[in-house]
Amino acid sequence: MARSIKLGHCVCDPRKPCPCLLFKEKNVCTCAGERVPLDEPQAAVRLTEYVRHAGCASKVSQKDLDLVLKTIPPVSDPRLLVGTATADDAGVFCLTDDATVVQTVDVFTPGVDDPFTFGRIAAANSLSDVYAMGGRPVTALSIIGFPIERLPHKVMSEIIRGGMAGLAEAGTILLGGHSINDEEVKFGFAVTGLVGKDDLTTNAGARAGDVLVLTKPLGTGIVSLAAQIGRAGPDAVEAMLASMTTLNRAAAEVMVGNGATACTDVTGFGLMGHLAQMAIQSGVTAEIWLDELPLLPGVLDYARQGMYSGANERNAEFSAAVADFEAGIGEDRKAVLFDAQTSGGLLIAFPPDRVEAALADMSRSGVPQAVIIGRMINASEGRIRVVSARPDDFSFNVKTIPAAPAGGERPAPSGQENRKMEKKATQPEECCAEGTGTPDHAMDIFQDFMGTSLQPGAVDVVTKELIAVALALAVNCVPCAKIHLRKAREMGIGEAELEEAVALATAFAGCRAMMLWNELKAE
Length: 523
Hints:
By secondary structure, the chain is an alpha+beta fold. The protein has 19 helices and 13 strands. The strands form 2 sheets. Strands 8-11-7-12-9-13-10 form a 7-stranded mixed sheet, sandwiched between helices. A 6-stranded mixed sheet has the order 1-2-3-6-4-5, with helices on one face.
């Protein structure tokens, strides 16, 4: 401190005089390792009070980043499979014929106040870039900026512990990291993963006719801001935290297994920003259906009240230039499209003949809110068309209903088509009615019972219909089997799934179940 007093300036922060105001008021010199005693317990620390822009809204705008990257010399190396040229989620490098690595780095400020939860979210967000490329994250290095002179060491420890918990869930090893004494809290990871060359999925492979699937609800930025100003409901906050801490691992595995043509994760640049890059790099026009978008609770209400961050305007500067909006779309719904997401879902382009299987696999794999939100309509220089409703000329029906999370209630359907499917799936049909001679009143009672039994609950309607098929075959009821086989196919249940139900029926009822299946399967 003597040197600082002699200079008249703090040698740790030359912007401050020495002695500084803190030393004059409290006789504490942080440069000498002294700390101001904290009057508040650790639990009272709110991380979001130590940042200007929360979460992925802290990123440099897409427009500014694009201007900077255009000045960077391109890297030319045959081993570089994906670099900065296509603004993809991660870089991909071929080490050997048998080893291809995916690398990414993602650091951002907290959008939540709890240190451990922030760490988990940061891990999920960083890992997501590897998942979006079809890769498997293997190792990670942590990067943290922390105001160590103003916040307790325990807070920094909890952030890192939360991050390690997220990595452990993904089977990823933390090798080490780097820390900076910063005025703002920042945290994230540099992640290295492996990807098979046949599994590699970029943002540049979408084709006209492909169908767009989004795997998580939108609105984390809007809910986060509402929570910061004390106006977010507990349901919205709970749903936001559940979404942000959920890994995109299962969604990525389904994506790879079902022949996706392109993928990106939806984070700081919002749905429109990330879709814009996919459309530009793929050379297609994307069409988004607003009515189909899955949203966190309360998001539209918050947006109508102006509760969205300045990142919205920054995001719009880039993606609105390539977007055409249907007349009558309000600013609240546009706000959702431009909202900066933290640890958002995967936006995946599937060939139309693979979507049915992909959605069924998503439902079974614990990705309950995956839903079709649009399509690629034609080749172009890369544009986005935003309309309110799914066009009538889109012939594909959304054929899976989100499954209930373990131990909880089934979530509300994510889009308009899912609502139609749920209604259709719960309408009772006549079953075992042929030749029974049952009075009408008794049949009404029976149909009410069947309708209730087949409603979605802890078990989704797709699974219930497969159970109905297996039971109908097992009890050898020809009318029941006919009805439920037809209904299953109308719901989009595939032959492979039906055959597994048949196998269960045969295991419990013997060859008569298999014989009935052989008689009816071609009908």
